[in-house]
Amino acid sequence: MDFKNITVAGSGVLGSQIAFQTAFKGFNVSVYDINDEVIAQAKERISKLKQRYLEDLQATEEEVDQAYNRLSFHSNLADAVTNADLVIEAIPEVVQIKVDFYEKLAKVAPAETIFATNSSTLLPSQFAEATGRPERFLALHFANEIWKNNTAEIMKHPGTNTDVFDKVISFAKAIGMVALPLHKEQPGYILNSLLVPLLDAAQMLLVKEVADPETIDKTWMVGTGAPLGPFAILDVVGIKTAYNITQAKAEKTGDPAFKKLAELLKTEYIDKGKLGRETGEGFYTYPNPSFISPDFLK
Ligand code: NAD
């Protein structure tokens, strides 16, 4: 492995997970965020992850403590990247915030440092110029709860150097991810390019009153052997997120079906506190949703 020192910029939901997972796999990790107050929150957020590693991965106390001790925390960007082989950016999904960040980073990072964005919906080519090193820049996209949902989609933009691409693929494997290389830019990467149309299609069947969620899920599960149907997946994603995406599509396309779906999600689910798996109810009720019963597929 060529990398030793990794900087994670942004210590929110994903940044804290990326930082801890990377340290857990033995790398030195600098965590950067905008001020000392947010850094104090980052320490707390990351400390809480220890428990998840103990429970979900049967890690030992010693392992999680050692991982935590490989982290250093910074609110000064130059200090955070002094020895960085790789900077992973996980700051808000706002173009201007990211552009400003890359322009600042370009000035203080060593010339050989590779930059990667964890952006879910933006493309690396949108920031390539701002990085000042387009050939050493690409996307490295993780999933929420990285220690369990261990995909890493590694996506080139047209200017990314092949050697840089290969190094980041090796790094993703070294931190326990299943590395999924994308040789061309693709909005939504591979996973969401597959998942979003499936979830949209399922919700359209519901809003057109063709079938109920259980029947739609059952069809998918029996027909393809998949362990979850689209509505069970939507419960994991969260109904609020599904609503926000649908609402944005309704506004963008003016399609009345999306508008009707957004209304349905709001009145029948969100307003009734059915936000998905997290709140114990969404399309199904948890912890024992009907689809886990063997009879469901009969
Ligand atoms: P978040 O809002 O939880 O965290 C963002 C962090 O960035 C905060 O700690 C904030 O203080 C910090 N920040 C704000 N401005 C900054 C700046 N100029 N420099 C450095 N740090 C700054 O966001 P998140 O959900 O962790 O998402 C971060 C990125 O990861 C986004 O690009 C998002 O698309 C991507 N992502 C999120 C998820 C997810 O499930 N949440 C999954 C995959 C990818």
From TrEMBL:
One Pfam short name: 3HCDH
InterPro entries hit by this protein: 3-OHacyl-CoA_DH (IPR022694), 3-OHacyl-CoA_DH_NAD-bd (IPR006176), 3HC_DH_C (IPR006108), 6-PGluconate_DH-like_C_sf (IPR008927), 6PGD_dom2 (IPR013328), Mito_3-hydroxyacyl-CoA_DH (IPR052242), NAD(P)-bd_dom_sf (IPR036291)
Protein name (database record): 3-hydroxybutyryl-CoA dehydrogenase
Enzyme category, top tier: oxidoreductase
3-hydroxyacyl-CoA dehydrogenase NAD binding domain residues: 5-182
This protein's pathway: Lipid metabolism; fatty acid beta-oxidation; Lipid metabolism; butanoate metabolism
Keyword set, alphabetical order: Coiled coil, Fatty acid metabolism, Lipid metabolism, NAD, Oxidoreductase
Transmembrane parts of this sequence: none
Catalysis performed (reactions): a (3S)-3-hydroxyacyl-CoA + NAD(+) = a 3-oxoacyl-CoA + NADH + H(+)
Coiled coil: 39-77
Annotated site residues (Important for catalytic activity) in this chain: 141
The organism of origin for this protein: Lederbergia galactosidilytica
Domain 3-hydroxyacyl-CoA dehydrogenase C-terminal positions: 188-286
E.C. designation(s): 1.1.1.157
A molecular-function term among this protein's GO annotations: (3S)-3-hydroxyacyl-CoA dehydrogenase (NAD+) activity
Biological processes per GO annotation: fatty acid beta-oxidation
